[in-house]
Design goal:
The chain has helices at residues 17-28, 40-53, 75-86, 109-137, 158-177, 214-217, 222-234, 245-256, 258-265; strands at residues 8-12, 32-36, 62-64, 91-94, 140-145, 183-190, 239-242. The protein has 271 residues and is of the alpha/beta class. It starts with 7 loop residues before the first strand and ends in a 6-residue tail after the last helix. It comes from Imperialibacter roseus.
């Protein structure tokens, strides 16, 4: 078991939702943290909450680094900044991302590109930038917050599902490539977690969805999801599913009974 205590953990999307919850759990476990998102003020809020709530956590062990995952040209430099903060990044938690809520026929191609740019290219750009250091040390861990729709897919989320499927293709291959370098890859597949992801989703024309999905509102608490995620990191799990019977069950139905899954998914409530 590889404890996160004392490890340097860089978390993207740390300003809210699952990323914020992972931040508190990692802090409680004694990790040194680099918190990233676009919103400086929200990162400051999360940092202050960490320091106030975790006994023994010193402010110097929580750093803030604003990152825009859509700005691909900036990400290599951001990775270098992250490495300079503590001298190393042991664990990268690629959590930052956006979702989409619209029918494929109503979704502009630029919207599909934006979702892919943030969720896929943003994640792999940071991983690639950290690889030289991890390979030289023969140590490192890439944690990817994918989704149940990285394995299955449903109507109204085609662009989002595509970006998450792409993560699985890349990181499954990366895991095999880096095995002899002792670098780990963990893919986390949450189902419905009680966050603002649907509210903040973008629509077919790039606008904000501004609605809470019923399933999201009734989903698992992000704090519970974070505990599962951090345990998975420490146990160096390769792939972990988090969610209710419908989401996790759907993954297994898709795997073993694809035709049945196809019939089921046509009837699911998507909003």
């Amino acid at each position: 078991m590889a404890e996160v205590k004392g490890k340097v953990v860089w978390i993207t999307g740390a300003s809210s939702g699952i990323g914020e919850a992972i931040t508190y759990e990692m802090a409680r476990k004694g990790a040194k943290l680099i918190l990233s998102a676009r919103r400086q003020e929200e990162l400051e809020r999360v940092k202050a909450a960490c320091v106030a709530s975790v006994q023994g956590l010193v402010e110097e062990n929580v750093k803030i680094l604003t990152v825009d995952l859509a700005n691909a040209a900036s990400l290599e430099a951001k990775a270098k900044e992250a490495e300079a903060m503590f001298g190393v990044v042991d664990v990268l938690v690629n959590n930052g991302g956006i979702s989409q809520r619209s029918l494929a026929k109503d979704t502009q191609l630029d919207v599909d590109r934006k979702v892919m740019e943030v969720n896929y290219f943003g994640a792999i750009a940071l991983s690639k930038a950290l690889l030289p250091g991890m390979i030289s040390r023969k140590n490192g861990h890439h944690v990817v917050i994918s989704s149940a729709v990285g394995i299955i897919s449903s109507p109204y989320r085609t662009g989002y599902a595509a970006s998450k499927h792409a993560l699985h293709g890349f990181y499954d291959g990366l895991r095999a490539e880096l095995h002899d370098d002792s670098i780990k890859v963990t893919i986390i597949c949450p189902g419905f977690i009680r966050t603002q992801i649907s509210v903040n989703s973008i629509t077919g024309d790039g606008g904000k969805f501004n609605e809470m999905d019923d399933a999201q509102a009734n989903g698992i608490a992000p704090e519970a999801a974070a505990r599962t995620i951090v345990r998975a990191v420490e146990k160096e799990k390769e792939e972990v599913y988090i969610g209710g019977v419908k989401e996790v069950g759907g993954i297994y139905v898709k795997r073993f009974f694809p035709s049945l899954f196809s019939q089921i998914v046509r009837k699911v409530k998507v909003r």
